[in-house]
């Protein structure tokens, strides 16, 4: 296994109290595999990713437990310099908002080349050649002429390509993409996702795709981890979860999205609101919104039950959820 | 859902003749604006609407060196009680259309007839009456509510401007009624926006839009800032309100699935022009414009089994600048069907010749010289 997150806990100490952003997350991704982490805002999906990358703001954040095993090393036990070496070389991240993630006063060529100067000790002129190669690779037209351009001179889709190029520069083993196409128009989104999938295949990288878009997940993922209030509520191969979700939250999400290919009547709406992380409900965090909630859900935190060999569901009534389709 | 939605008005043309109303005095104009319109009749008729934003050079002696052609000649009708969805990518001009209809921007050319009166030429009391009847719900519930005002003041402010809708002593109760209608606790009237979640804030925005009993609500990306589970709640609420208050919606969004769900008819915009317009079935199941086809095929469907069975049309390149749009058909630079004719002749928004008089759903208005029916949404 390329990466394994085991029982990870992250909390944020704020003036109002301790916000438990991640409460025991387990997931894994292998080389060449795409794991989609699905969740709404505040579900802890991005915080988990930041903990893996080692870019969590600490304080206020604090990793209060768990292990992140990457290529047989627990990242949380490594020293800062060792982690810095891993970051960029062995794992890289693509962010949602390319414009604010790129440095506005450096040309894209300098920013791409910097990877080679810092990590590989290349000269600036060699690095520039590499930068042009990378821009070609992510299919930015006229790379040679545009290498000196600044981020604002590129369109949103092109900027996201530059972000991808930067993440791929040192051919890492793992890429974490945090909502890589959310800010893009749908035709550009298709271009960028295509490119990402192709490069992943070519380099046999593991990909963690963080998203809230059930359509994108269905298109590219091999397996899914659904998060709610800092916990994994369901993990499954992609086909099974769309066919028969084993957690009421997943089921609610799937039923609440309008479909492009059919005209629906009223949409199913999950009642209520996502919980406040300062006051996560006791028992199953989803119980106040769950149509199937029973007294036991208010008191006992559901473990990740084994549905079958590849599927887990954190619902006391996963069997009933599966059956009641 | 309203009756009009169950039975899509397949026969309704995109544009009908405008029955202009001659109002010599302001009183007559206001009376015409307040006259009722029966369901299914055109309430808003947009004709050749143009908005160019000038590009200037120089500081002291500004001279115009060009124009951003944000909206460049679009025409459509909005019928009473229907939802017309407008889709398109960023920069296509859909939000500018909203602003023009709200008379927040002055049109460069063209007309917007509201019940037969051209609102681009109105002023004074008549314009005020129009503005009362056309309201807006904004995209971002975080920035469109004043953080220093209570919910009661935000919604009640509309009555300060239009005092005839609710007498002073009645306003508080009216605001509480509105909160109840949009599914918020009426006791929240004294709370501030930051005390609400995103979905609740959008409900406040909707309550404000409803306050003056408008006939038309223009919704500019009303749910795109919301989480998936909350999005469905707000969409259902909007559907319910439409039936209850007999509203017409102009629903602007980039999410094609949501637009299909809520709309009776859908218009697709590209670079300031309408590329194709028709009922939801016509547009989604029988698109004839290549741009619509590419747009629809690019939307991921939440069904992994469709992954390899759906045709994907991946467009190359980006949308050209609206300051310097391509000649002829605006889509030709990215179109796989483009021929010489496309560079010279602007395709008109009309039922393509080969489909004229046909009974197929492909027989709807599409601005393409080489229109053909192609289902890109459903897996083969």
TrEMBL record, chain A:
It is found in: Cell membrane. Keywords: ATP-binding, Cell membrane, Membrane, Nucleotide-binding, Transport. It is a peripheral membrane protein. Gene3D superfamilies: P-loop containing nucleotide triphosphate hydrolases. One of its GO terms (molecular function) is ATP binding. Its main location: membrane. Residues 3-254 form the ABC transporter domain. CDD domains: ABC_NikE_OppD_transporters. It comes from the Bacteria. Belongs to the ABC transporter superfamily. This is ABC transporter ATP-binding protein. It comes from Streptomyces salyersiae.
